[in-house]
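Treating backbone geometry as a discrete language has practical consequences that deserve illustration. The amino acid sequence and the backbone structure tokens for this protein are reproduced below.
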Amino acid sequence: MNQSLKSHIMRRVYYSYLLSFGSSLIFWQGIFLGAATLLLARWLHVASIVDNFLAVPVREVPNFIVGSFLGAISHGEVVTAFVATLALVIAFLASRRLGRALATRSLVAHS
């Protein structure tokens, strides 16, 4: 009886832990950032992007990036441009949230 009650309680503890983990916003941002990264890596050949990027003079890099992005949209690669934008936005939001979480932990630890 005691062992059965203990296992029943622990099962509920595990369920609540999984539920709290799955309802975390940063968890889902990480999932979507990973998916966007995989899709972007699959659709684009990273080595050619790096080679093209390194071939551009430093002063022309911002214009190159904007021109490449607008060229992708004008050539019908809207999904690629969307995934790139989505990956950047999610990376920014996740890093901001992670920075806040680390700052809060740091403040709590030093108190």
Observations:
- Residues 10 and 16 are 10 Å apart (CA to CA).
- Helices lie at 2-22, 25-43, 46-55, 61-74, 78-110.
- The mean pLDDT is 82.
